[in-house]
Amino acid sequence: MLQKFDERNRDLIVNVGGKLAHRDQAGVSPFDSAVQGGDAVWEGLRLTNGRIFALDEHLSRLRRSAHALAFARVPSDEEITEEIRRTLAANGMRDGVHIRLTLTRGVKVTSGMDPRLNTAGPTLIVLAEFKDPVYDLSGIRLITSSVRRTAPDSLDPKIHHNNLLPSILAKVEANVAGADDAVMLDHRGFVAETNATHIFMLFQAGGAATLATPTTVSCPEGITRSTVLGLAAEAGIATETGDYTLPQLYNAAEVFVTGTMGGIVPVIAVDGRKISNTIGDGGIGPVTRQLTKLYANLTATAGAVVA
Would the pTM of this model clear 0.90, i.e. be above it? Predict the structure, then answer.
């Protein structure tokens, strides 16, 4: 596990509802909807050289998710961006930072599920931490979890919600198995994503290569996922989205995962099956290597200036 306590974060200043406070002093009300029932939406952002890549896209997804949950009010993009700036300035941050935005429905007058009990809100939480990549960039190992992604008629993943128990349970299984993360299938048995990232597979046939990724029927519409699809198209790499089974994943020429927290990370084995093109090449296949470089160059130079 690469995620460990970073001494630089010992005296973090956290922003809860516009109030800046030391991490040990910041407080969320026990009547807040996030505490009461996970009634909140969130986004993960990365700060590189004073810029947040795809900030507009992240804030748009946050807004769509809050609207789908019928939040009475959502702060404007300008308001949220200003709170991000205030938090970064208070911590003297400019590079190598992960920001977790959480927007809850707000504070209730009494405990209960009914949104009509919310008379104050929403609550915006800005948590910025110095955080290096959370995966081993030489390659990770996956197992398949018994926990399924929910169907869209149960809890639609288009809502980027705080109900993360399925992911946590899948991660528990990965920990027990000694793997880095877990593949999660959808309600039909097709590959959806991992407990924390989207999955890409390179299929080769007859000299042609296609980069494939599952549909977003049972996983969020990842912003890094979308960026990688765009970079691949620009580089002349054929892409497709569809339904894929575990045997297809096992037999892919290359596999990698994507996410804001870790960028692009190669996968070297799934359920004990080695991924063919990553063995003997430092754990990274040629297409994965190419896209990793393109993504790093893009995120280092593009994005909204906030620090």
Answer: yes
